[in-house]
Specification:
The complex is a heterodimer of chains A (367) and B (125). With 367 residues, chain A is an alpha+beta fold. Among the domains of chain A are: 4-59 and 149-239, Gyrase A, domain 2 (2-Layer Sandwich); 286-355, Aminomethyltransferase beta-barrel domains (Elongation Factor Tu (Ef-tu), domain 3, Beta Barrel), CATH 2.40.30.110. Chain A is 20% helix and 33% strand. Chain A contains nine helices and 19 strands. Chain A has helices spanning 4-7, 14-19, 40-48, 70-77, 125-136, 160-164, 212-221, 229-239, 273-282; strands at residues 23-27, 30-35, 53-56, 61-66, 90-96, 102-112, 115-120, 142-145, 150-156, 180-185, 188-193, 202-208, 225-226, 287-293, 304-307, 310-321, 325-332, 342-346, 349-355. Chain A has a six-stranded mixed β-sheet with strand order 10-11-12-9-3-13. Chain A has a six-stranded antiparallel β-barrel with strand order 14-17-16-15-18-19. In chain A, strands 5-6-7-4-8 form a five-stranded antiparallel β-sheet, covered by helices on one side. Chain B has 125 residues and is of the alpha+beta class. Chain B has a single domain (7-108), classed as Beta Barrel (OB fold (Dihydrolipoamide Acetyltransferase, E2P)). Chain B is 19% helix and 36% strand. Chain B has helices at residues 29-35, 82-85, 89-92, 116-124, and strands at residues 7-9, 14-19, 22-27, 38-42, 49-50, 55-61, 65-69, 74-79, 101-105. In chain B, the strands form two sheets. Chain B has a six-stranded antiparallel β-sheet with strand order 1-2-3-9-8-5. Chain B is globular and about 35 Å long. Chain B starts with 6 loop residues before the first strand and ends with a helix. The chains are: A alpha+beta (367), B alpha+beta (125). Chain A binds chain B through residues 23, 34-35, 39-42, 230-231, 233-234, 296-298, 300, 319-320, 347, and chain B through 36-37, 39-40, 42, 58, 60-63, 65, 84.
């Protein structure tokens, strides 16, 4: 039997997490902290209520795409319109199969006219890279997987900028929402974007592994609190942000996942375009809705959802929100997307829920 | 934590305090620590009869849903309704204000319950 240590990867910050009392769990092939000593609720509060939290998300993947046909290549492979990106801008996007379903959701960074940087999900990394490299054979581009050398930190919360600014020469005020800068940090090259997954102001910081511990420690010294996977998922779900393996997967298209806003059918051909157009024409096979329990209980992933007493679908992400109560995203039958009494089956009992709008709690991102 | 000679423990990290034929149930400090922040407790209905080893309550932390098992058989006569509004009491005072239910014991009671010393030894193993 392989041991846990032998089969799971560790990020450059593994020892730091253990030192901070991190409870390490398997996640996307890595040993990652689900929470630290203070516990998930206090971590959540630190980010939501005026502090700053720091998250090790180095399990995520990074791919550099460069070459004379980098733009054409990414227009062909991703759903969003890369021609609209300006240098220093980030774009939320997706990679689709020919069938229009998701290979992954990604962010695209425009480094220059012939150079882009993609951030991809940890669990999909090898699949994504293989897909990109296969397609790259038909374009004048080079695809380099930099994941193993790169640490990605997220720094999120109202005081994120104050915690990060002392480490940098550039003025962070110059980086707008979904913008980034290539920076010098601790003597190394890094990328800092005003992006995140929490609904708070904050940054994502791409740095070489060699300086990961120093930057992490400096941010802690500047008041940031370490945040584990549990609080990260609470913050993500409260915003209604899609997560691969939950709201999006190779079983749904952007039509179902309410991600047509990143799927630009008018931009020209891209992989999956025809299938998405056909699905848009025929209508989604299921619809994503946001619900809030009115009865007691916590809606959890995979709990069955009924509308007017008829089984209609299931929860994809659900949680107890300290600010909003029991909230969830669920896929239901198309005819139940707009109307009907919703209930969630919890341990054999139907618990009443109401439809609501996203985000479940107010977003404080800087627009 | 309140340690008392008439408190016994199960291998599933529940405690039971006997007072005549009334037994009070809860989960141990070790259990709440392992679960993390508790955000919901589903209490049994008063009047329900539970078997020893039967799931009688559910404790939910941020990430996990856990059944809680009855250390002894009995009829539920009282539940800690304060946990409906303040489930965190299970974290802050697992052996006191975080009690879950009281039962009137039915039958001879438990087969395999541990004393405080035995439970601490069990935790070390």
């Amino acid at each position: 039997m392989p041991t846990l240590e032998a089969t799971l990867a560790k990020t450059a910050l593994f020892a730091a997490h253990v030192g901070l009392g991190g409870k390490m769990v398997p996640f996307a092939g890595f040993e990652m902290p689900v929470q630290y000593k203070m516990g998930a609720l206090k971590e959540y509060t630190a980010v939501r209520e005026g502090g700053a939290g720091i998250f090790d998300i180095a399990h995520m993947g990074q791919v550099r795409v460069s070459g004379d046909e980098a733009l054409e290549f990414l227009q062909y492979l991703t759903t969003n319109d890369v021609s609209k990106l300006v240098e220093g801008q980030v774009q939320y996007s997706a990679l689709l199969n020919e069938t229009g379903t998701f290979i992954d959701d990604i962010t695209t960074y425009k480094l220059g006219d012939n150079a882009y940087y993609l951030c991809i999900n940890a669990a999909n990394r090898h699949k994504d890279v293989a897909h990109l490299q296969t397609e790259a054979a038909n374009f004048d581009v080079v695809v380099v997987d930099e994941s193993d050398d790169t640490t990605l930190l997220a720094l999120q919360g109202a005081t994120a900028q104050a915690a990060l600014q002392p480490l940098l020469d550039i003025d962070l005020e110059s980086i707008g929402y979904y913008k980034f800068a290539e920076v010098s940090i601790n003597g190394c090259d890094g990328i800092i974007s005003r992006t995140g997954y929490t609904g708070e102001d904050g940054f994502e910081i791409y740095i070489p592994n060699a300086i990961a511990v120093d930057v992490w420690d400096a941010l802690l010294a500047n008041g940031a609190v370490p945040i584990g996977l549990a609080a990260r998922d609470m913050l993500r779900t409260e915003m209604g942000y899609a997560l691969y393996g939950h709201e999006i997967s190779d079983a749904v298209t952007p039509v179902e996942a309410k991600l047509m806003w990143i799927t630009k059918l008018e931009k020209g051909y891209f992989i999956g375009k025809e299938a998405v157009e056909a699905r848009k024409e025929s209508g989604p096979q299921q619809r994503l809705i946001a619900i809030k329990l009115t009865g007691r209980g916590i809606p959890r992933e995979h709990y069955p959802v009924s509308v007017d007493g008829v089984l209609s679908g299931e929860i994809t992400s659900g949680m107890f929100s300290p600010m909003a109560g029991g909230v969830a995203l669920a896929y239901v039958k198309p005819e139940h997307a707009e109307a009907g009494e919703v209930s969630v089956e919890i341990r054999g009992k139907q618990v009443a829920a109401e439809r609501t709008v996203l985000p479940f709690v107010r977003s404080n991102v800087r627009r | 934590m309140t340690i008392s000679a008439n408190v016994k423990y199960t291998k599933d990290h529940e405690w039971v305090r006997m007072d005549g034929d009334i037994a009070t149930f809860g989960i141990t400090d070790h259990a709440q620590e392992a679960l993390g922040d508790i955000v919901f407790v589903e209490l049994p209905e008063v009047g329900r009869e539970v078997e020893a080893g039967e799931a009688y309550a559910v404790v939910e932390s941020v990430k996990a849903v856990s059944d809680v098992y009855a250390p002894v058989a009995g009829e539920v006569i009282e539940v800690n309704e304060e946990l409906e509004g303040e489930p965190e009491k299970v974290n802050t005072d697992a052996f006191g204000a975080g009690w879950i239910a009281k039962v009137k014991v039915i039958g001879d009671g438990p087969v395999e319950l541990m004393t405080d010393d035995e439970y601490n030894t069990f935790l070390e193993e």
